Amino acid sequence: MYRPEIESAPREAIEKLQLERLQSMLIRVYDNVGMYRKRFDEAGFDPRSVQSLEDLSHAPFTTKDDLRNAYPYGLFAVPLKDIVRIHSSSGTTGQITVGGYTRHDLEVWAELVARVLTAAGATADSIVQVAYGYGLFTGGLGVHDGSQLLGAMTVPASGGNTKRQVKMLKDLGVNLLACTPSYALRIAETMQEMGVDADEMALHGGVFGAEPWSEQMRTQIENGLGIRATDIYGLSEVMGPGVAGECECQSGLHVFEDHFLLEVVDTETLKPVPDNQYGEVVFTTLTKEGIPLVRYRTRDISRIILGECACGRTLRRMERITGRSDDMLIIRGVNVYPSQIEQVLLGIPGIAPHYQVVLSKKGSMDHIEAQVEVAPGFSFDEVSKLEMLKRQVGIELASSLSVSISVKLVEPKSITRSEGKAKRVVDLRVKEEGAAGQ
Ligand code: DLL
């Protein structure tokens, strides 16, 4: 499902459509959602005065806390009888948030996922295995509906039971796999354990998202599964998977700007940053009926990529998500995202793509340790080689991140594998840890 009249439209046409949709959406939320009416009035923001996309910068932001405070239905803009499905965020701590979808919302969602799958190379003739968790998490059912709308044969595998995943991939002749990148690696590893070769499979692509992953991780997945791996992005508050997705050029994620207005703002000042500069991604939904959101602060860090994409799509691209501002570690004053650690680790021969960052207390000081798995076949008995590898990892981390982190090499397969979102940071400083998500 490729819609060139939108996806490759001239910028002016996209922005004209956005403005029309924005104007009517702002009036809709003002008229139907108490919180927005109050906020707009307090901020002196008249939704009927919006004459350009820039005017949106006068509107207040929406945060995760607003959704939590409105739990469960406070931000719904339509009567409950018009809601046909509910999903919830995979929120790890605190109050969960609920998203409601009208029938039209589900239709739009399926179309956008179908567009991502198409951009990744899938067609109506494809067989797509969906190994995202099914249930309240948006990954499973969201990708499922998109795949089905595309006309692909859809295998609703859900997460887990990895040997069976491999068997189905092989026996059913699956062409495209959809799951988290960490689970894709787990599947590749299980294939090896089962003696299944990538050449025996019809698999040629994978659509991976729901957690940050690096270019190095992409290479590992592509080599392990013998496929081309593309990125899919989304969040349950805004819709679910399919807010943005990569095309086969693998050079950034096209944002579906006909349905979402993208801003990137400075995390401190909340003022828009120039294109090409990193900041927090903010989305305004343009067509959502159930829970329209105005300037929703995602906490995700990225930047807009300038220039045209070779695929011909004119929808703007954002760079892969570096991480969430909530996940940012401050190590002796230096800001570090787990994905930056991953980028360094996965470039070092002898290191497997499995790691965890453990935060603990040593006296009153915070202590940070990267636990890193050595590649299979690396002999743990060769102490001098291990010492050299450990030193190399330490030096490369320090030179890339400008701060030193202690390193612990661990044996192959000792780091817990994920079947959904990987837990990269283990914080032993807090007693109660959040759940790992789907
Ligand atoms: O993870 C929706 C999704 C499902 C996206 C399947 C892609 C594939 P939530 O559970 O609400 O929804 O989590 C949303 O996950 O704010 C990001 O921090 C992170 N995230 C999602 N996709 C990506 C990605 C789903 N491609 C949160 N790269 C978002 C990096 C991602 N992080």
3D structure, described in words:
The structure is a single chain. This protein has 438 residues and is an alpha/beta fold. It contains 11 helices and 21 strands. The strands form 5 sheets. The chain has a 9-stranded mixed beta sheet with strand order 4-3-5-6-7-8-9-14-13. The chain has a 4-stranded antiparallel beta sheet with strand order 10-11-12-15. Strand 16 (329-331) and strand 17 form a beta hairpin. The protein is globular. The two termini are 28 Å apart. Mean pLDDT is 93; it is low at 432-438. The chain binds 5'-O-[hydroxy(phenylacetyl)phosphoryl]adenosine. Residues 89-90, 132, 138-139, 209-212, 231-236, 240-241, 298, 300, 321, 324 line the site of 5'-O-[hydroxy(phenylacetyl)phosphoryl]adenosine.
Defining key terms:
438 residues; 9-stranded mixed sheet; 4-stranded antiparallel sheet; globular; binds 5'-O-[hydroxy(phenylacetyl)phosphoryl]adenosine
- Structural class determined from secondary elements: alpha/beta
Strand order of the largest sheet: 4-3-5-6-7-8-9-14-13
Helix coverage percent of residues? 25-40%
Ends apart, CA distance between termini = 28 Å
Mean pLDDT: 93
- In total, the number of strands is 21
State the helix count. 11
* C-alpha Rg (nearest Å): 22 Å
Unreliable runs: 432-438
Percentage beta strand:
15-25%
Instruction: Catalogue the ligands.
Output: 5'-O-[hydroxy(phenylacetyl)phosphoryl]adenosine
| Basic shape | globular
What is the makeup of the main sheet?
Answer: 9 strands, mixed
